[in-house]
Amino acid sequence: MKRLFFILRTRGANWDRDRTLEEQDGWSGHVEFMNRLAREGFIVLGGPLEGTPNVLLLAMAENEEAVRARLAGDIWAQQDLLRVERVAPWSLKLGIWQKA
């Protein structure tokens, strides 16, 4: 059964600190990949955490291995622009998505 996962990604060794997010190599491929994951319902929410080198994602998956496997297909993962720093199951207790 699928459940919600918290994912923290951080900049990898090949992130060019002199370029904006949109100027990084492979930007369009990364955007296409992430948008596809969102359309498929794998990614529920996601985006950069302002003032940090991190990105927060919420995903629906069977387990941590499935999360890591799906994100490994991102061109930015392959180019070491973004790395998965942490994956953890998340039990939502408050908010509009909370199960009754």
Low-confidence stretches: none
Number of E-state strands: 4
Instruction: Write the element-wise H/E pattern from the N-terminal end onward.
Output: EHEEHHE
What's the pLDDT, averaged over the residues?
94
- Label the CATH architecture: 2-Layer Sandwich
Q: How many separate domains make up the residues?
A: 1
CATH superfamily: Dimeric alpha+beta barrel
Percentage of residues assigned to helices: 25-40%
* Major beta-sheet overview: 4 strands, antiparallel
Number of helices: 3
Distance between the termini: 18 Å
* Helix/sheet category: alpha+beta
State which percent range the strand residues make up: 25-35%
Looking at the structure, what is the overall shape? Answer: globular
CATH topology: Alpha-Beta Plaits
Could you name the key traits of this structure?
100 residues, alpha+beta, four-stranded antiparallel beta sheet, 3 helices
Can you walk through the features of this model?
The chain has 100 residues and is of the alpha+beta class. The chain has a single domain, classed as Alpha-Beta Plaits (2-Layer Sandwich), CATH 3.30.70. Helix content is 25%, strand content 31%. It has three helices and four strands, in the order βαββααβ. The chain has helices at 27-39, 64-71, 75-78; strands spanning 3-11, 43-48, 54-61, 82-89. It has a four-stranded antiparallel β-sheet with strand order 2-3-1-4. It is globular, with a radius of gyration of 14 Å. It starts with a strand and ends in an 11-residue tail after the last strand. The model has no long low-confidence stretch (mean pLDDT 94).
